[in-house]
Specification:
Blueprint lengths: L4 E2 L3 E10 L2 E8 L4 E7 L8 H19 L9 E7 L2 E6 L4 E3 H8 L4 H20 L2 E2 L8 E4 L4 E3 L6 E2 L20 H4 L6 H17 L9 H10 L12 H7 L10 H12 L118 H15 L37 E4 L14 E4 L5 E4 L5 E6 L4 E5 L6 E7 L7 H13 L6 E10 L2 E12 L8 E11 L5 E9 L3 H14 L5
Antiparallel strand pairs: 1-2, 2-3, 3-4, 4-6, 5-6, 7-9, 8-11, 9-10, 12-13, 13-14, 15-16, 16-17, 17-21, 18-19, 19-20, 20-21
Length: 607
């Protein structure tokens, strides 16, 4: 599309970022002879007409929200135009990079500099709140650092404008899960305090190099947000009490924007804000650290488990395949209260007003590469919620998964979001949308077409890769947006294929990685039996394959019984680690194993 003239006025140059719902281009305004940034709504190409209308409404709302905020720390919107049946947003071009990019490049940001950045973001938020706009997606990827020292807040794509009719579906979760405030996960309406929570999480990420609540999946991350306190930030310096104040679970107990501005100004000068200390929780403070309620009734999920596959909309998972993204540092099992200076999380009485959703999984099982599979021994970990909270979970999961349709979780900032000059990721990571329909090629009848076996089809996935599937009835489900794990299933998750990519793998040898996975899941799965672990060569690259069986329990899944799975992993020439995984009931394995070989033959990496 480079060189394309949009709306007879804007000549597209190079793509400077992708993520969210679209791609951002550098462009030349041939009328005013200036350089601008143009956001293209690429996600609209992959959805139904109904979902496209919703995304168009969101794009217009983004422009409207940003346009009503007059502040130097908010990216200016110049125009919204229609081209190729889609809206495009013309914005101020900021030469620089995002805070997420800075964290990725430097590992962490110096506390005084982080405080200065936070001060400008806060000023942008104060201007937005004064205009009746709640941003709802404050994160490092949406904080731009200009080459001239400017700090700007961007991407009002999911902002909520006071008085506007809602454009999200009932129960839809919008925002980056790492930075969702607890009250939002509980289903309450967001307010200015929710943006302040996200600012606190953003500052934590900046100074520590990792988000405070990230776990191995979106669900366990949300549980950590609601139930657990963030680890003490050892590198935060004078920012530590400010971050603690912003990350208070109860929005009513967080400081207001004016107080936060004063705290950040002091931290930017290298002084530890005295006013922030009163927000730091202590175990001696009975009003802030209420005593724990009686032990809740046993959870139907093992600690650390999650909705493992497609069709997990009712709080059950199909089967437990590996999740390849390791938890952030410091997510091992929590110490007992008083074992260290870190206070335990605020307990919530089940059934009480404002009680939290009982998201499964502790995220603190100590596993380094996989989520706790079903049927494993439940380790000591963070406090679990009671039965009432677990009932609330069904509503949350239904909103996330929707009975076999795609999980709608807007991606978290990791340096690959819009307006960023960072290189593209293995999968470009557009925002997943409900049941996106990848482009299909191939045959649906009994004839062989394009080299595919009879009945097989090729799908060009929105994440950039291409895959062949045994039939046209295999639906796409985004298992984990952040770690770019995508599932395809024909039966709501009973059988499925999973694709995962990691451009910064922890292992330089696929065999060593699968050996590590084998040891961990072998300790957790019921009746686990390794059927084979061997080195292989796949397309002239070092590869490895792990095959195993286990028994899925009725208490953990709607598809109980013997299961079998195969996991093939290799490193591409670009250093990206790809894993191609397939699982099904053991009784279907003769067919599944043959299908897997065809999937491997037809796999195409993103170009």
């Amino acid at each position: 599309m480079q060189g394309l003239l949009v709306a007879g006025r804007y000549r597209l140059g190079d793509a400077i970022g992708s993520g969210g719902m679209g791609r951002v281009w550098r462009a030349h305004d041939e009328v005013l002879h200036r350089t601008v940034a143009i956001k293209e709504l690429t996600a609209a190409l992959y959805v139904s007409d109904g979902d496209q209308a919703m995304m168009l409404a969101r794009t217009r709302a983004e422009a409207r929200a940003a346009a009503r905020i007059n502040h130097s720390a908010v990216v200016t919107v110049h125009d919204v135009l229609e081209h190729d049946g889609r809206p495009w947003i013309v914005m101020e071009l900021v030469e620089g990079h995002s805070l997420a990019d800075a964290v990725k490049e430097r590992e962490r940001v110096e506390p005084r500099e982080a405080a200065r950045i936070g001060l400008w973001v806060l000023r942008a938020l104060r201007a937005a709140h004064a205009a009746g706009v709640v941003h709802r997606d404050v994160k490092p990827g949406n904080v731009l650092l200009g080459g001239d020292g400017r700090v700007l807040l961007t991407d009002f794509g999911i902002a909520q404008i006071e008085g506007d009719t809602g454009i999200t579906r009932t129960g839809e979760v919008v925002g980056s899960v790492d930075y969702l405030a607890p009250e939002r996960i509980r289903g309450l309406d967001p307010g200015p305090a929710s943006d302040l929570w996200a600012l606190g999480a953003t500052l934590y990420t900046a100074v520590e190099g990792r988000s405070p609540f990230r776990r191995t999946s979106p669900l366990t991350t949300m549980q950590a947000v609601v139930e657990e306190e963030a680890d003490e930030p050892p590198y935060a310096g004078p920012l530590a009490p400010v971050i603690s104040a912003l990350l208070r679970k109860d929005p009513a107990t967080r400081p207001d924007a004016e107080a936060v501005e004063q705290m950040l100004a002091e931290a930017a000068e290298g002084r530890r804000p005295a006013s922030a200390q009163r927000y730091v929780m202590t175990q001696a403070d009975g009003t802030r650290m209420p005593s724990a309620p009686p032990p809740p009734s046993p959870s139907p999920w093992p600690s650390g488990s999650t909705a493992y596959g497609p069709g997990a909309g009712a709080g059950t998972g199909a089967v437990p395949p590996p999740s390849y993204f390791p938890p952030a540092a410091g997510t091992e099992a929590e110490p007992e209260p008083g074992a260290s200076g870190a206070p335990p999380g605020n307990p919530v009485t089940p059934g009480a007003p404002g009680a939290t959703s009982g998201l499964p999984g502790g995220g603190g099982s100590g596993l380094t590469a996989v989520q706790s599979p079903s049927g494993g021994v439940t380790p000591a970990g963070p406090r679990r919620l009671g039965r009432v909270g677990l009932i609330a979970l069904v509503v949350v999961l239904a909103a996330l998964v929707g009975g076999g349709t795609a999980m709608l979780l807007i991606p978290r900032g990791d340096g690959r979001t819009q307006d960023s000059s960072s290189s593209a990721s293995p999968f470009d990571k557009p925002k997943p949308t409900p049941t996106p329909t990848p482009e299909k090629t191939g045959a649906d009848d009994s004839t062989q077409t394009g080299g595919l076996p009879a009945g097989w089809v090729r799908r060009d996935d929105p994440f950039g890769f291409s895959i062949v599937l045994p039939g046209d009835d295999w639906e796409r489900v985004v298992f984990d947006e952040e770690t770019r794990q995508v599932d395809y299933t024909p039966d709501g998750g009973r059988s499925f294929i999973r694709i995962a990519a990691d451009d910064s793998p922890d292992f330089d040898d696929p065999y060593e990685h699968l050996s590590d996975l084998d040891q961990q899941i072998g300790q957790r799965l019921v009746d686990y039996r390794q059927m084979g672990l061997e080195r292989r060569v796949y397309r002239d690259r070092e590869s490895a394959r792990l095959e195993y069986t286990w028994t899925a329990l009725a208490k953990d899944t709607e598809f109980p019984g013997p299961y079998q799975a195969v996991d093939q992993m290799y490193l591409s020439r670009d250093g990206v680690e790809y894993a191609i995984y397939m699982a099904s009931p053991a009784e279907d394995w003769a067919t599944t194993s043959k299908q897997f070989e065809t999937v491997l033959q037809g796999w195409r990496e993103p170009r």
